[in-house]
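<goal> How does this chain fold?
<sample>
Here is the protein in question

***
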Amino acid sequence: MGGIRPRVDTRSKILSRDAALALPPPLTLVTGYFDILRAEHARDLQQARDRAPAQPLMAVILTGLWPVLNPRARAELVAALRMVDYVVTADDGDRDSLIEALKPAQLVRLEAADQSRARQLREHVQRRQTR
């Protein structure tokens, strides 16, 4: 059956906080807003995966300000990416305590990049509307 992969319900990758905390270490953790999911996110996640290919990769979806998509929708989109093993959602205020509790072997923070990407997208849309 070379090449044929079984179908996986990507929603099963989405964990509650308690289930995430029950995972055994080591773990690579990537935090961000993932709103709107872009090719850069996939590249960032793949780079995190490539740095520690034997470790599970967990994406933490943060709430953020004025998101386009709700956290569950963003979690489902990120969970659909092959390189991601687990996804958990967290409030921005809960982020640091979750990171501390998970004790990741690798940590990649995408919040600043996500804010910059969202700003660029807004500016692009505004420029297109004013033409």
About this structure: Residues 10-129 form a domain with the Rossmann fold fold (CATH 3.40.50.620). The chain has a mean pLDDT of 90.
